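seq as requested:
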Amino acid sequence: MILLANGKLITRDPDGPGYLPDGGVVADGDKLAAVGTTAELKARYPQAEFVDARGGVIMPGLINAHTHIYSALARGLSIRGYAPTNFYEVLDGQWWNIDRHLDLAATRASDQALVIDSIKQGVTTIFDHHASFGEIAGSLAEIAQVTRDYGLRACLCYEVSDRDGEDKAIASVQENKDFIDWCEKNPSDMLKPLFGGHALFTISDKTFERMAAANAGRVGYHIHVSEGTNDVFDSLQNYGRRPVQRLHDHGILGPKTILGHCIHVNTAELELIARTDTMVVNNPESNMANAVGISPVLQLFAHGILVGLGTDAYTNDMLESVKVALLAQRHLACLPGVGWQEATTMLFSNNARMARRCGFPELGVLRPGAAADVIVMDYKPFTPFGAENIDGHMLFGMTGRQCQTTMVAGKILMQDRELTGIDEAAVNAQIVEVSKKLWGQLNGPEA
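struct tokens:
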């Protein structure tokens, strides 16, 4: 039993104390047993192991609803001759180029890098969308092993695509099926499957049929939709319908399916997403970096669609991403007073709701019975801090790098900025060596 207290407690619990100026939580196993003031919890649980928040902000662990482990080793990378002028060239020249060179060792190193960085920035659950066309079979098992070893919650899938030919498309369908089969035989609150797919312009009708047959309605899908205009043009030209309509034709939409991006969607598609209760994930920084546009988040909310927040691996800092989400919506609307509620709701409420739909326990809230996923932020406010302005401090003062302690499922993964159970220096050295090899393959012997 762990008593984590002596901090400013934010519970996100609408039915309990939303904020306590000196509070904490008690974790009993993988669930929370109690929430309250530091004094009362110490009195009730004198035998509990005490973890001192040192006056920091205690809050629910953060959730990244869309990321890509396979891109982790790209930090600082420059590929010779890569100078993209459009989104397709971004994909083909960098990201597909990288994943075509990933073997299982490189997939493992990518996972280690992203998981460690997530833990250090207070992210306790990730929804990953993996691609490693250099070695497909066993890649999700490799990722799952790292997340289990390091203690992070993860929802995993493999990115089905026809871009490298039919054989690899079939292999990627099989990789999803094998992982779903394994998860059914080995149920866990730490690991959940979805069925992955790349953008529709790289998936044929035949491949969609194979995906549906392999899945057999067992789990939802996690797929990129209308991230770039090429996705829309391809669907209209080759299939006579827009991307969301095409997904509906194949039975992909539904309450457990996640559509990534949804930038270039029209009113009919918004209504179809809403009618099927399908989820959407906004990835503002990645969208802006790729110059593909800004998702109409305000309209998605207006249609009653469940919209979460991801990073698309542009960053692992969810607090950085929520800031950009707010700015992007104000920029898109040309209105300085919009987006606050939508941005904060995506991160602090909707991501947890999405996780629950995909089979995880109750996340994103600190109350008895909820998952013991808790973080402590080393944040010393220099203006008044209380229940009425918590989100203002989150948006304009706090960053992921201020995380000092991370607990997942009742286990301390990082305390006072020191990882527990992980030799970070040794693991980092191994990751660097794998990165050097990968960069050499991408650029040749001179890299």
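The longest strand covers residues 19-28.
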